[in-house]
Amino acid sequence: MMTRVKICGIQKLKHAQAAVQAGTDAIGFVFANSKRQVTINQARRIAEQIPSHIKKIGVFVNSSREELETTVHQVGLDFVQLHGDESPEFCENLGLPYIKALRIQHESDLEQLKYYEGAHYFLLDSASGPHRGGNGTTFDWGLLKHQDIDRQRFILAGGLNADNVQEAIDQTQPTMVDVSSGVETDGDKDPDKINRFIKNAKERLTCHTHNRM
């Protein structure tokens, strides 16, 4: 099965369209405080122009249930991606399809996964850097080698780019790879880098046979 791709931190329609044309499977809008933050109106205008089969994912940090529900409804999001201190109870009671993001530095950090069994997907990101995500740093992929994790629900993020994505897929066997800063030039999405990243990612096959997203 071909590894799927999410291009995150989309702020402009032209970059969303470039990602779609290159073969992305999902785009991400950042609603948390970030240099890539978008408003509901910005995201909605872009989402309306994107084919329905492309998943629209909103990135949030410690947002209220009301804020999540409002954004999902107004933008037409398929998933909320939660990067904050959201408890398992909060996530389960949301009633929304969610991706739980976890920051990984040590093998023990993977213990958190057992508390979010209800997540449609879990995203593993680097713990290095000042932000909850989008720091452009990798973690030790070797930590996952002997872990019994559900690869069909596993999204890999953190420091990925066109040059290392194939190695990342080979080592970790994710169902999807997530990139933001790795397809940017001078802080702006770069269509050429988007195209190259997606091409390289989709050249790598994973062992999954079940498609949930």
SSE topology sketch:
Elements: E1 4-7, H1 13-22, E2 26-30, H2 40-47, E3 55-60, H3 65-75, E4 79-82, H4 88-94, E5 98-104, E6 121-126, E7 154-156, H5 165-172, E8 176-179, E9 184-185, E10 188-189, H6 191-202
Helix pairs in contact: 1-6
List segments where confidence is low: pLDDT < 50 over at least 5 consecutive residues: none
Q: Specify the overall morphology.
A: globular
The CATH class, by name, is: Alpha Beta
CATH homologous superfamily identity: Aldolase class I
Gap from first CA to last CA:
13 Å
Order of helices and strands, N to C?
A: EHEHEHEHEEEHEEEH
Determine the CATH topology: TIM Barrel
The chain-level mean pLDDT equals 91
Side by side, the strands of the main sheet go 1-2-3-4-5-6-7-8
Estimated structural class: alpha/beta
Number of beta-strand segments: 10
CATH architecture: Alpha-Beta Barrel
Radius of gyration: 16 Å
Main β-sheet description: 8 strands, parallel, barrel
Helix tally?
Answer: 6
Counted up, domains total 1
Helix content: 25-40%
Pfam families: PRAI (PF00697)
GO molecular function, one term: phosphoribosylanthranilate isomerase activity
Pathway: Amino-acid biosynthesis; L-tryptophan biosynthesis; L-tryptophan from chorismate: step 3/5
Protein name: N-(5'-phosphoribosyl)anthranilate isomerase
